[in-house]
From TrEMBL:
InterPro entries: DesK/YvfT_N, HATPase_C_sf, HATPase_dom, Sensor_HK_TwoCompSys, Sig_transdc_His_kin_sub3_dim/P
A GO CC term assigned to this protein in UniProt: membrane
GO molecular function: phosphorelay sensor kinase activity; protein dimerization activity
Transmembrane segments: 12-32, 39-57, 63-86, 106-124, 136-153
Protein name in the entry: histidine kinase
Domain DesK/YvfT N-terminal: 6-141
Recorded coiled-coil stretches: 152-182
Domain Histidine kinase/HSP90-like ATPase: from-to ranges: 281-362
A Pfam family that the UniProt record links to this protein: DesK_N
Catalytic activity annotation: ATP + protein L-histidine = ADP + protein N-phospho-L-histidine
Length: 374
């Protein structure tokens, strides 16, 4: 186990404490004016004061102890030596301001006030005779200092909490990004690879029975694989946002490749809907169509876009076997729900002469414009 390197002060505070400690040279000089015994005792107390000052920067558990030692030495030197030692009060005053708990702050501050008052009362004659009432202004500054330091300490702690919160947010963003990539891989590549698998199985069956059709199917497999490659490139480049009208064109190609006829009705431009929100809707439409190809056994699929007051509804209908009353949600449906929740939308699935998937997104109409909420 590596031995911890000795440090005079924490690296985080830099050279400031060491520079501030140089002010102890003034009380050290004042001690030379007293008797030899008083001077020796004074220097010992000054050394202990300096040690307590240094240790307070590192202390967590014994913080109050080191502050208390400083206050005790300040009290002794100020009362029994000279009121000038009250200037050492700037040292404990700064530490008092760094108390996290209000109780510790108040107790220490009241002790500091007590030391100041007792010292001034004890040496009032010296203050009056020497016309040194100007010292009272500096003593008042010492009493105010803990409140200023406490304000700085609060801001520092809040900044630390903010930094910690930002780290947690960064972790959550990374986690969400992983989930988004997983959803995008499923939504974009999952259906394409499934289609390639189906086509490959069909080619295997047709290669002897109908070679010409098998060749056509192979060509479609090649086109689909190129589409998958393009989707991978889009994912790597953060996936460009896809408009609904663009997605419907691709949906038509995919359905035709799966021998499923396609019809579409309604205004597909959605010109008042933001590109980001159209991308969310497009991904959900793609997932619904993927499920039609993989699970429905349908021969027909229709998409209807319907805009009514306060809502945009997209209906994806097929004539397949339906989902049944006890169907279970897969990753695709969960992904659709998560995406739509971002723009306050939702999805509903029912069996009406096949499967009907309805994607509903709330909209706001104002001043002749239509905007999707979210």
């Amino acid at each position: 186990m590596e031995k911890e390197r000795f440090r005079v002060f924490p690296e985080s505070v830099g050279w400031f404490p060491l520079i501030w400690m140089s002010y102890l040279l003034l009380p050290a000089y004042n001690l030379t004016k007293f008797s030899t015994m008083q001077m020796i005792v004074g220097y010992i107390l000054l050394l202990i004061f300096a040690i307590s000052y240094r240790n307070a920067y590192f202390a967590t558990k014994h913080y109050a102890l080191w502050v208390g030692i400083q206050l005790g030495i300040l009290c002794y030197l100020s009362i029994f030596y000279s009121y000038l030692f009250l200037y050492m009060g700037f040292f404990p005053a700064s530490f008092i301001g760094w108390y996290e708990k209000k109780k510790g702050f108040l107790v220490s501050y009241l002790i500091l006030v007590g030391v100041m008052v007792i010292t001034i009362v004890t040496h009032i004659d010296s203050l009056l005779s020497d016309n040194n009432l100007g010292h009272l202004l500096f003593f008042f500054i010492i009493l105010v200092a803990p409140f200023g330091m406490r304000s700085i300490a609060e801001k520092s702690r809040l900044q630390e909490q903010l930094n910690e919160a930002n780290k947690k947010i960064e972790q959550l963003i990374k986690q969400e990004e992983r989930q988004r990539i997983a959803r995008d891989l499923h939504d974009t590549l999952g259906h394409t690879l499934s289609l390639i698998t189906l086509k490959s199985q069909l080619v295997e069956k047709l290669i002897d029975k109908d070679p010409e059709r098998a060749k056509r199917e192979v060509n479609e497999v090649q086109q689909t694989s190129r589409s998958a490659l393009r989707q991978v490139r889009e994912l790597v480049s953060e996936m460009r946002a896809i408009k609904v009208v663009e997605e419907l064109i691709e949906v038509e190609c995919i359905l035709e490749a799966a021998n499923i006829s396609f019809t579409c009705r309604g205004d597909t431009s959605l010109s008042k809907v933001s590109l980001y929100k159209q991308n969310v809707i497009s991904m959900c439409v793609k997932e619904a169509v993927t499920n039609v190809i993989k699970h429905s056994g349908a021969t027909k699929c229709s998409i209807i876009l319907e805009q009514i007051t306060g809502q945009l509804a997209i209906h994806i209908q097929d004539n397949g076997r339906g989902v049944g009353e006890t169907y279970q949600k897969g990753n695709g449906l969960h992904g659709m729900e998560e995406r739509l929740s971002i723009i306050d939308g939702f999805v509903n699935i029912s069996s009406i002469q096949g499967t009907l998937v309805t994607i509903t997104v709330p909209i706001i109409e104002k001043q002749g414009e239509t905007e999707v909420m979210g």
